[in-house]
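Lecture 7 notes: from sequence to structure.
We start with the chain below.
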Amino acid sequence: MKSLNGRLELQNDLTLNLNYSYPVNLSDLFDNKIVLEIYRQYLIEYFSSKFQNEKKCTLNGFNNLALILGIQRSDIDSIHANVGSTIYTQFLTHALHKGFIDESEMHFLSKVKNTLFIDDLVCLNLIRQAKKDRVKTFVEDILDDQIINPEKIAEMRKMAMLLNVNLQNDISVPIDQRVKLFKMEIDFNIEKELLNNENQNLIEELRFFFGLSKELTKKVLIENITLKCEECLINAIASIRRKENEQSMEELKRILRFGKVLPVKIKSSFISAKEKEQILSAFKSSNESEDSDKYLLKTMLNL
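Predicted structure tokens for the same chain:
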């Protein structure tokens, strides 16, 4: 029989045979709810160890326990379905914390399925839902942080792609949150100089992952890069005023990093044309500046 990950495995030889009975069982001595709970707890205890090394000898105990307790077949099937789903959900939540399910974990899940005779489709749906829940929790944890870590966004994106979870269609992440995550990761990659005018493939990759239209992506990029450049220019001018020329140059370099992705023209009512000329002159006199950077900065300053 094929396991959940497609490998061939022998199904456990666990067929509950209720065609015979013990002279005495507990069905007449205890309330039915108590008897059923005993059986349910036995199942949970059996699967409490991930690899069950110390519990191999208890497989045949299912049949005997069911007869001793005097449980009906319909109740057994109901308990198996309930306990199986609980075990699957709890185990998957733990396993998926690292972002994937390894071979040994799939083997354990297959054993649960085969032992409790859980329907294949039910198991597949449980696995699929667990993957969705893991990514959804990851997204929520990122957005709940006071300071969002862009590296966590990249980690979440890789996990979602590995688990084949779509933020829009599978876990209904709102558009404003997807745009926010998109902008954060774009900014991070620009600052790290992983995005420029010659290497913009990541923009399309992020656009597709976050489910943004081309029109919205263009609008977001223009607005975000313009805002970032305006902030950098204000900081650069403030540094010049404080005679902190080195810090001013760092802010101008940041402007250029964003400008190499999208060369917007910076307009700010807080900065005069004279100050723009002054800061451009300071940049041109810098030994670190290249002719292409000088031209780009002049264009962005609208001079």
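Points to note: The longest helix spans residues 214-241. DSSP finds twelve helices and no strands in the chain.
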